[in-house]
């Protein structure tokens, strides 16, 4: 399946992020996922469909049921992209810590 939606738009929605957290623990059917939300099963199924289109989740047929589980490979791609910013921010925070430490010493 070709990715048809933007991954970052998909994870921008808090319900979809909550679904990902649930599926990170273990595979679930859409009905089992829907039990955790105060929205219709159809709405939850639509969220799962979007996550599936972005390849953030994968589906697996077990008998008559379809189970969804998180696609760790795709999550890792997101983490890798975010990592570049994490390094920049860590450097900036370290520099700020040094400035604050210096200012604190000067006041004593």
Kindly describe this structure.
- It is a single chain.
- With 108 residues, the chain is mostly helical.
- It folds into two domains: 1-70, Winged helix-like DNA-binding domain superfamily/Winged helix DNA-binding domain (Arc Repressor Mutant, subunit A, Orthogonal Bundle), CATH 1.10.10.10; 72-108.
- The chain has helices at residues 7-12, 14-25, 30-34, 41-53, 72-107; strands at 57-62, 65-70.
- Strands 1-2 form a two-stranded antiparallel ribbon.
- Strand 1 and strand 2 (65-70) form a beta hairpin.
- The model has no long low-confidence stretch (mean pLDDT 90).
Quick structural summary:
The protein is mainly α.
Features:
108 residues, mainly alpha, Arc Repressor Mutant, subunit A, two-stranded antiparallel sheet
Determine the CATH topology of the largest domain. Answer: Arc Repressor Mutant, subunit A
- Identify the quaternary structure here: single chain
Say which CATH homologous superfamily of the largest domain is assigned.
Answer: Winged helix-like DNA-binding domain superfamily/Winged helix DNA-binding domain
Largest sheet: 2 strands, antiparallel
Share of helical residues: 55-70%
Strands of the widest sheet, in order across it, are 1-2
How much of the polypeptide forms β-strand, as a percent range? Answer: 5-15%
Q: Compute the number of strand runs.
A: 2
Principal-axis shape equals elongated
Taken together, the total number of domains comes to 2
Structural class: mainly alpha
The radius of gyration is 20 Å
Number of helices: 5
SSE pattern, N- to C-terminal: HHHHEEH
Question: Tell me, what is the CATH class of the largest domain?
Answer: Mainly Alpha
The CATH architecture name of the largest domain reads Orthogonal Bundle
């Amino acid at each position: 399946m070709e990715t048809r939606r933007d991954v970052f738009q998909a994870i921008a929605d808090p319900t979809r992020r909550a679904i990902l957290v649930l599926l990170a623990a273990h595979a679930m059917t859409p009905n089992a996922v829907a039990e955790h939300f105060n929205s219709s099963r159809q709405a939850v199924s639509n969220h799962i469909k979007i996550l599936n289109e972005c390849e953030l989740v994968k589906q697996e047929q077990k008998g008559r049921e379809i189970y969804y589980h998180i696609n760790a490979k795709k999550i890792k791609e997101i983490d890798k992209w975010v990592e570049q910013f994490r390094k920049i921010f860590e450097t900036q925070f370290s520099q700020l810590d040094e400035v604050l430490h210096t200012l604190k010493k000067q006041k004593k």
